[in-house]
Amino acid sequence: MTELRNVEAELTRFRLRLLVVALLVLGCFGLLAWRLYTLQVVRHEELAERAETNRTAVVPIVPNRGEILDRNGVVLATNYKAYTLEITPSRTDRPMDELMDAIGQIVEVTPRDRKRFKRLQEDSRNFESLPIRMRLTDEEVARFAAQRYRFPGVDIKARLFRTYPLGETGAHLIGYIGRINQKEKERIEDSDDAANYRGTDYIGKLGVEASYERYLHGTTGVEQMETSAGGRAVRKLDSHPATPGDSIQLSIDINLQKMVEEMYGERRGALVALDPTTGEVLALVSKPTYDPNLFVDGIDQESWDELNGSIDKPLLNRALRGTYPPGSTYKPFMGLAGLETGKRTPGAITMDNGSWTFGGNTFRSGHALGAVDLRRAIVHSSNVYFYQLANDMGVNAIHDFMAPLGFGQITGIDIPGEARGILPSTEWKKNAYRKPAQQKWYAGETISLGIGQGYNSFTMLQLATATAALAAGGVRHQPHVVKARQDPDTLEFKDVERAAPAPLGYAPQDVALVKKAMVGVTQEGTSRAVFVGAPYLSGGKTGTAQAVTIGQKAKYNAAKLAEHQRDHSLYIAFAPAEQPRIVVAAVVENAGFGAAHAAPVARRVMDYWLAGRYPSEQDMKALQGGQVGAPIGTPRTTAEMALPVGTAKTQ
């Protein structure tokens, strides 16, 4: 009995084990069936597409970048094809220095090439193709091609290169392109343009190249290639060609730009010329300048140190980012403010005895003019008149009047990087300083604002924009450097849409009075000697602005100051006086009196634009040394000095 019970128990355990095994086997088969269903039915389309991808490759076709032209069709930025020798670090089979030594036995690899490559390698991923030599000659291409089998991961590639034919001319406004860095890659990958930048190595970094990148770049095309198991291309399956980028036409006259840059010579400064009726920028000069071609392939360390470490700051776009006290060029705007706010009438008289005392402090004027009204105060640049006007208005009223003119504001010009400058107010000072004692606005601080000193600090673009609004009768146009875009297919130029002009609501008689006073500056005032013989009537205002603060009781002596501490020379102008077609704002840094340095430069700009005159060689040399007022010698014509005209190339 006992044995029978043991046998039955053993059979029960066996059957239980058998059942468990059967269930396990059925479960496994069930899992296999479910997996088979998932692969064959649920994920059929996805896996079929992946299988197709395994035998095909999608290769991006990088579009030709659009050209940049000046208003007359002179080519400022273009492309050309050349061969490069490139290394993909992840595919190489030897140490990088050893590889470069071996390559150097076939084609020249300079220390500069090595440094540039290492810098690019630090800023790139290991699987990216990086250039070790740019612009190979046909002989070098043939020589390396014969030895190509010895260098896994090293290839010869045909590339489009960006070039700036005029070098330093207009560099700050044109900008440049450079290799896309890691930060830019991440930004692109997170944007809607990620697909359009597949295969693209370069992007606009500054100037027009940066602000109009989306138009200049074009649309990337694709080729679908059938590949072998080893990844070798077998045949082309499909192709969608790239669309070249639009060419950009600037409002800049590059001949005028080049002339102004030459007039500055070795001096530092900035000049902006505008059409007051449209806001078109005719010239945007910053001196010293630099060669943008240095940056396209990655600037070498020596050149970078020279540019970045220079006391003259050639990389600074002084027209957009350089801020200066406007000095006496501010007085016409203060005069208009006095009229518009009712603080002054045209005939109100102020006694200018050469200085003015307020709160126990004496503010010097430099010369006594006696009784002055608004016109005489502008023509002969009376400090006392504007000291008292500023005091009567107060800092906040000055701020509120000047802001709509563009002072201390972002103008909205279509190139990046402009500085806001400083248009002071009580609110501004509270935000600018931390200590309560520093945040308080003192009445005496308002006085110097009236003559364009104190906390006032503006760009030449802002000064030109405000002058253009005055010249246009109180209508402000947004400044812009791009005039039109050229469609790569139709080759037609289409004007770029701009913001509508903004009327500032000034009384016409007030604007007319200030403009008439500025005409008086060129006829009987501080710039009369510079405009002798001009074939047009112009209005203007000289300015001399402190680079460093000089005490009221101290006497300015340029000889005792370092060159970078001396006063700046400024000038604003418009012409013809009756119906202005050009406005100029110029500064020559640390040059001194405005009539001696900035005004002669502005005169030649208006001679060029209105009379077709180009300085003679004798005049140009004297201008560069700041040794001339009115033009000397026989002027050349703008036509004979014009640069060759090119047109946007068809792709």
Question: Describe it for me?
Answer:
- The chain is built from 23 helices and 25 strands.
- The strands form eight sheets. Strands 2, 3, 4, 5, 10, 18 and 19 form a seven-stranded mixed sheet that branches.
- Helices cover 36% and strands 20% of the residues.
- Residues 550-557 and 647-651 have low confidence and may be disordered.
- It is elongated and about 140 Å long.
- The chain is α+β, with helices and mostly antiparallel strands and 651 residues long.
List the main descriptive attributes of the protein structure presented here:
5-stranded antiparallel sheet, alpha+beta, 651 residues, 25 strands, 36% helix, elongated, 7-stranded mixed sheet, 23 helices
The total count of helices amounts to 23
Strand content: 15-25%
- Rg (CA only): 35 Å
Largest sheet: 7 strands, mixed
Low-confidence stretches: 550-557, 647-651
